[in-house]
Design a protein that fits this description.
The protein folds into 3 domains: 107 residues; 95 residues, no CATH class; 124 residues, D-amino Acid Aminotransferase, Chain A, domain 1 (2-Layer Sandwich). With 359 residues, the chain is α/β, with parallel strands linked by helices. Helix content is 38%, strand content 19%. The strands form 4 sheets. Strands 2-1-4-5 form a 4-stranded parallel beta sheet, covered by helices on one side. Strands 10-9-11-12 form a 4-stranded antiparallel beta sheet. A 3-stranded antiparallel beta sheet has the order 6-8-7. α4 packs across α10 and α5 runs parallel beside α7. The protein contains 10 helices and 13 strands.
Length: 359
């Protein structure tokens, strides 16, 4: 039995997967939220996958890291993926990739020396996976105004990340996001999304005459896996054994955006797909067939009964919600994917930035 460990608020990712794409193997996979880790005194498992710990507080992360190492030491028959003390999160990963010359762009905390920043940039939450908080920022003066505006909305500047913007649009002005799953050190190409917005979150529906170009690229990615070695190098550098690496292509080669430690695979095929999404579905099926085989291979070992006795203070800490509920509501509205609502939010934020510039 494989158990995923994640935050209760974001367990929907596995619920989606096990109810749809992974339904055929859902008897092999269980989900335990970090607030339920007291259950580790009674379960039988072959594998524990530590995920989603980028959303934990420092104190919670310390507890989860200790649990990881306790299981590794006391139960050598259990495979543990993702060491919370070693796996690089987004800020550290982007800096390391830039330092090693793998990435062309870099990222900075708001309190760092920003003299080396290459503009334009944008702001995002350092650890969440909801996309950009600002538009593209052209210089240091506008960067300061954007940071002040976000602070007024309740964001802690320590949770903000300054990311150098790298132009990756094709000749149609469209942006691509490749996504490959990392599972037990192996790479599985998942999907290729194309969007008109530089922060790619969804895939456009293409007209018939556009199918050939994008279908050829999608087929090559999913079926031939041309970036396997590059993705493996990035995942090894990040010390990540489970997650989804998102990246783009540039004239100089692939460029990594992040590794999502708790990827959402969606809720299966659309109920009323357009022609393009019907076309894409066969490649998603092929990708997920390979992933299911990998999960079954991962679970092809005897279960071990865990009898961990966790400290009650640690359990109470893990059950706590360290997120500000008011900021959570602000963030939800701020990063909405509804086009009209998103546009209204962007207009309002631009007005707030102008006020900051005027001070």
């Amino acid at each position: 039995m494989i158990y995923f460990l994640l935050t209760d608020r974001h367990r929907y990712t596995l619920d989606h997967y096990l109810g749809h794409r992974g339904k055929a193997i859902n008897k092999h996979i269980g989900v335990i939220s970090y607030g339920e880790l007291g259950r580790l005194n009674s379960i039988e498992c072959s594998t524990l996958i530590f995920s989603d710990f980028d959303r934990l507080s420092e104190a919670q992360l310390d507890v989860v890291s200790r649990i990881y190492h306790t299981v590794k030491e006391q139960y050598p028959g259990v495979k543990c993926l993702n060491d919370p003390a070693r796996s690089l999160l987004r800020p550290e990963l982007l800096r390391k990739l830039a330092l090693e010359g793998i990435n062309q762009h870099n990222a900075y905390g708001t309190d760092e020396d920003l003299s080396a920043v290459k503009y334009p940039v944008f702001l995002r939450h350092a650890y969440r996976h909801s996309g950009n908080l600002s538009g593209i920022i052209k210089d240091a003066r506008h960067l300061v105004a954007n940071i002040r505006a976000l602070k007024l909305l309740g964001y802690d500047r320590n949770d903000l990340l300054i990311v150098e913007f790298l132009e990756t649009a094709d000749h149609h002005g469209r942006y691509r996001k490749y996504a490959s799953l990392i599972l037990d050190g192996k790479i599985f190409p998942l999907q290729l999304d194309v969007d008109q917005h530089w922060m790619v979150k969804d895939c456009l529906a293409f007209r018939d005459h556009e199918f050939e170009e994008y279908e050829r690229e999608l087929r090559a990615f999913v079926m031939e896996d041309p970036f396997r070695e590059w993705c493996k190098g990035v995942s090894d550098l990040a010390a990540v054994e489970y997650g989804r690496i998102d990246f783009a292509m540039t004239p100089k080669g692939p460029e990594a955006w992040e590794i999502n430690l708790n990827p959402d695979f969606g809720s299966g095929a659309k109920s009323k797909p357009d022609a393009w999404h019907k076309y894409v579905e066969k490649y998603k099926i092929a990708a997920h067939d390979r992933i299911q085989e990998a999960y079954l291979a991962l679970d092809d070992r005897p279960n071990t009964r865990l009898q961990l006795q966790l400290d009650q203070n640690d359990i109470a800490l893990l059950k706590g919600d360290h997120e500000n509920p008011l900021l959570r509501k602000v963030h939800k509205n701020f990063t909405t994917r509804k086009p009209l609502k998103r546009k209204l939010v962007e207009i309002a934020f631009e007005q707030l930035v102008r006020l900051m510039l005027a001070k």
